[in-house]
Structure formats: structure tokens, C-alpha cells
Write a structure and sequence with these properties.
6 strands
């Protein structure tokens, strides 16, 4: 009997159909997940004006994409090389701008918005599917057992963060895909020449160019590269590392912003780039929860004991493989070290739960490789079945918790986030209609200079549907200084959510801010003071307002002439 035949997932070669059925079952599960996410990507896609009803990021990224589209329309193609919205390099924005440009024209000339809204979401899903495909190919380097490979792909698609960000216009699944691809290019053989190692380094640079969190997989690649070079002459090892490092830096700069090459001669270019980067890095240092770093990381990445147990068993699989298998033992050890390093960084270096959870997707696929540790164990099949069952149960629990929330919420991330939202969207649609009717009745066909609104309000219009109006958004920090517009665009309407913490009674508000970080408490107290002054005295900065409409949990204030 061969070694393959002794595996729990591998019956004798004369009767292999059970293996195929296990693989088919896993791939059927993958297909079901992809179809569900594909369907959800069409939800909340009717009009550009109502993008914020789904998520603020949809609106923010569509605004950035609109700028790229107008650059193409005006023939300013050079601008595409220096796009840096949200500290994402041109490698993310430029290809997407070209792909969606025909859809922009359809939206502009025919008023058909949904293709432009849906395609960026489906691109995210496509990257997740690509990640599952190359993860399968990685596991294939460890074992020829198709059932094990299929299980790894299914587990990857069962990760809540991967599924959630497959339904979002953004970079998360692209980073995960590029991280997996770079690992595959390195693991597909054991060559140690510069030519063999360069593709993985180039893809790593591409991941970092899309977003710096793409570099979190770097320790894994570095450890394997160094391991392969050990034993070579010192000059050869150092020369190869220097060449690979130079290739990485050059590629990273070119794919992020080629203008950075001129920074030694024009320091302002570097200053502007670092300014954008610093701003978005500061966002990762703000948390709404005053809890221990360990607890914050747990909530961001696992959220439930079901998920945490599944992740523990998969990491234990990596340990088992390093202890009981000679084949590719070091790769599993490198995966464990990388996971430890990245987790330490996210625990102690990142305070934002959303940032920590999304960044972890750059390396979470390493956990899924742990399936290989259970293929030779007597109870391995049962353990893998348990892992899948735990992950499926975790998804069900997350859906139940989201459904139980009184307010619309995207957290905890799950595979049915927007399906649940769509089933509970009646209050949102009612509020949007109320706002639209109130302002239309007052303004008529007259132009509107500026609208200032709470992000929770999700009004039925934005800078895409009303390009001649300036919009300012309060992110739980309402203040006259928070306007995005200059004085030539005075505020005409303020839209506030009556369910915002700033409108709570004193006892409820104090309970709400208890335990939060001091900086967050200060911001919320200032927000409450501003709302009170506006509601009771009609003052907002140097302007006076009157309450125009109230209803559907929103108050609309109009500036006095």
C-alpha cells in the first residue's frame, strides 16, 4: 500500500470515488458561497444618490473613481499614474478606472447607475475567488489529495472577513489575493536563483503598492528566501538578497506613485505622499472600545469562540505538520512565525477594530494551510469536518447577532450582511424618502450650496447625484469646523440623526461614553454640545438655523437668510 493510500482522506487507488465526492462537496460549498455573495453585490445598487444606504465606503470610493473617470474623459491620462486616494497606489485605481469607464459613460448619458455600482464589488469577489484558487494550488504543493485542497479553499471562503470584503468596493480581497499569489510563486518549486525568486518579490511589491498592509506577508517570503540561500557562498547570498531588495523597492515605487522617483529633486512630492499616508495611518489608532489590546484583536479577527476554536485547530495543524512531516516542514514553521509577528503588530500597533480585522486577511490564508497537518492523523477527517462545522456555525451566529441588532449594522462581518440589511431596509428607505420630499418641497429647483449631514443619516443624494452641491459629513464629531467646503459655499441644510449619541438624554449618554478612550469621549462631548446649541438656539458657527422638518429619526435644519 502506498503512503497516499494510508491517509484518512485517501482510500486505496482502486476505489477513489469517496475522495472525489469529498472534493465535490467542498467545491459545491465554495460555489454556493460565491453565488450568495454575487447576488448580494447587486443589493443597494439602484441609484448613485442612495449609495450611502449600503455603506459609506461605497460612496467614498465611487467619488474617487469619478475623479479618475473625469481625468480619462478630459484626456489627462498622466493623472492616473499619481492617484493616491486613501493611500492606495495607482495600481489599484487606474486599472479599475479603465475597466469601469464605459459604465461611467452609461451612467452619465443614460442614467443607468447599477453597472457602475456593482462591478467594483464583483471585482472584489473575483479576487476572493482567485485567492481560493491559488490557495488550493499552494496546498497542492504539500499533498496531491484533492479533498484536502478543496477543504482549504472552502475554509478560506468561509472566513467572515473574506466574504464580507468580497461584497465591498475596496482593496482587502485584492491584497489577500496578491499575498496568496506571491506565496504560491515562491512555493511552486524550491529554486533559489534570482530569476526563480523575482516573481514572488514583484507580486509582493504590487501588494504593497495597492496598500501598505499588503506587505504583512513579507516575513513569510523573507524567511523562505533566506532558508533557500543558506548554504550558498556568502557573496552569492548577499548579492541575491541585494538584487531582490533593489527589485522590490524599484517595483514598489513604480507601482505606487512613479512621481516619487523625482522626490530627491522635488521634496514636496514626498511630503504630499507622506501626508496622505500619515492621515490614514492615524485612523488606525482610534478605537471606539476601551478594552485590552488582546480583547480588541479577538473581537476584530475571531469575534466568537466558534471561529477562534477553528483557527486554533488549523494552526495546530501547522504545528503537527512541522513535527511529523519532513516535506516542507520549514514552510509551515515560517507560516507560524509570520502569523505570530503579524498578530503581535495588530494587537499592539493597531487600535481600530476594522483596520485590524481587514489587515489580518493579508496573512489569514496561512492558517488555512493547516489542513495539511490533519491528513495523516487517524482522526484527521473528523477534525477537518469539525473545523468546517465550526466555521459554518460561526457564520450562522454572526447572522443571528446582526439580525438581533435594533439598528442597521455591518458588524459582525458575515456572509449575509447585506442580505440582512436589505430585509431590514424599510426604515432606511422611509428616511431617504422623507429627506428627499422635505428638501424638494423647500428648495424646489433652486441650487443648493452645501448640505452638512450625519453619516448615519445616509441621505438620498450625494456629490455624484448633485455635483454642484458641496457635501460635508459629521463622523460623530459635529462641528462648524468640520465642513469640507469653503466660505463661498455656506451651509444651507443640516441633516442630523435623532438616534445619534449626541441626542441621548444625559444618563444614556454618560452610559454610552463610559469606558471609551479619553480622546473619543472628548470628541463625543463636543459633538453633544454642538447639537444642543443648534437644536435649542439655532446656532451653528456664525450661521443661524431653523428646524425645517422632523421625522423618520432625522431632523432637518435650514439656514436663515
Amino acid at each position: 500500500m502506498t503512503q497516499q493510500a494510508s491517509m484518512p482522506f485517501s482510500p486505496p487507488a482502486t476505489h477513489r470515488s469517496p475522495i472525489n465526492w469529498l472534493a465535490i462537496a467542498c467545491y459545491a460549498g465554495c460555489a454556493a458561497i460565491v453565488l450568495l455573495l454575487f447576488y448580494e453585490n447587486f443589493l443597494f445598487s439602484e441609484k448613485l444618490g442612495r449609495l450611502a444606504s449600503r455603506t459609506v465606503d461605497d460612496l467614498a470610493f465611487q467619488l474617487a473613481l469619478r475623479d479618475a473617470h473625469t481625468s480619462i474623459a478630459s484626456g489627462q491620462f498622466s493623472k492616473l499614474w499619481i492617484l493616491n486616494y486613501y493611500a492606495y497606489g495607482w495600481l489599484y485605481w487606474a486599472p479599475l478606472a479603465w475597466i469601469t469607464y464605459p459604465l461611467y459613460l452609461i451612467s452619465s448619458y443614460f442614467g443607468i447607475d447599477w453597472p457602475l455600482i456593482v462591478v467594483p464589488r464583483q471585482v472584489s469577489l473575483l479576487f476572493a475567488l482567485g485567492g481560493a484558487y491559488f490557495l488550493r494550488k499552494i496546498v497542492k504543493r504539500f499533498t496531491q489529495n484533492e479533498a484536502i485542497c478543496a477543504t482549504a479553499a472552502l475554509i478560506y471562503l468561509l472566513f467572515p472577513a473574506i466574504a464580507f470584503f468580497s461584497m465591498r468596493f475596496g482593496t482587502v480581497t485584492e491584497i489577500s489575493f496578491l499575498s496568496i499569489l506571491s506565496a504560491y510563486l515562491l512555493l511552486r518549486d524550491k529554486a533559489s536563483s534570482f530569476r526563480a525568486l523575482a516573481p514572488a518579490v514583484i507580486v509582493l511589491a504590487a501588494a504593497g503598492a495597492v496598500k501598505l498592509s499588503g506587505l504583512l506577508i513579507a516575513p513569510f517570503l523573507f524567511l523562505i528566501i533566506v532558508r533557500r540561500l543558506i548554504g550558498k557562498p556568502v557573496w552569492h547570498m548577499l548579492g541575491t538578497l541585494f538584487a531582490l531588495g533593489s527589485l522590490f523597492v524599484a517595483t514598489l515605487i513604480l507601482l505606487t506613485n512613479p512621481a516619487l522617483l523625482a522626490a530627491p529633486f522635488h521634496p514636496q512630492i514626498l511630503h504630499d505622499y507622506l501626508g496622505v499616508l500619515k492621515h490614514h495611518m492615524q485612523v488606525t489608532q482610534v478605537s471606539g472600545l476601551n478594552i485590552s489590546p488582546w480583547r480588541r484583536f479577538y473581537e476584530a479577527t475571531f469575534h466568537s469562540w466558534l471561529n477562534a476554536t477553528a483557527m486554533f485547530l488549523l494552526r495546530l495543524g501547522l504545528v503537527v505538520h512541522t513535527r511529523h512531516s519532513v516535506s516542507r516542514r520549514f514552510e509551515c514553521l515560517a507560516a507560524l512565525i509570520t502569523l505570530a509577528v503579524v498578530m503581535a503588530y495588530l494587537i499592539f500597533g493597531i487600535k481600530s477594530e476594522v483596520s485590524a480585522g481587514s489587515y489580518f486577511t493579508a496573512v489569514s490564508f496561512l492558517i488555512a494551510i493547516g489542513v495539511i497537518g490533519w491528513q495523516r492523523s487517524a482522526g484527521g477527517a473528523a477534525v477537518l469536518f469539525l473545523i468546517v462545522a465550526l466555521l459554518v456555525s460561526d457564520v450562522a451566529l454572526r447572522v443571528q447577532r446582526q439580525t438581533a441588532m435594533t439598528a442597521m449594522a455591518e458588524f459582525p462581518w458575515n456572509h449575509a450582511t447585506y442580505l440582512v440589511q436589505s430585509l431590514r431596509s424599510k426604515p432606511i428607505n422611509k428616511r431617504a424618502d422623507f429627506i428627499e420630499n422635505c428638501i424638494a418641497a423647500d428648495a424646489g429647483s433652486q441650487p443648493i450650496s452645501q448640505i452638512f449631514y450625519d453619516y448615519e443619516v445616509a441621505p438620498p443624494f450625494n456629490a455624484l447625484s448633485m455635483p454642484n452641491t458641496c457635501f460635508s459629513v459629521a463622523w460623530g464629531d459635529l462641528s462648524p469646523a468640520g465642513t469640507y467646503c469653503d466660505r463661498s459655499n455656506p451651509i444651507q441644510y443640516i441633516l442630523l440623526s435623532l438616534t445619534a449619541p449626541g441626542f441621548m438624554d444625559e444618563a444614556a449618554f454618560n452610559k454610552r461614553i463610559a469606558g471609551l478612550e479619553p480622546s473619543v469621549v472628548q470628541r463625543m462631548q463636543q459633538d453633544r454640545s454642538t447639537r444642543t446649541t443648534l437644536a435649542e438656539q439655532g446656532l451653528f458657527g456664525d450661521q443661524k438655523f431653523v428646524r425645517l422638518c422632523s421625522g423618520a429619526d432625522v431632523a432637518i435644519f435650514k439656514a436663515k437668510p
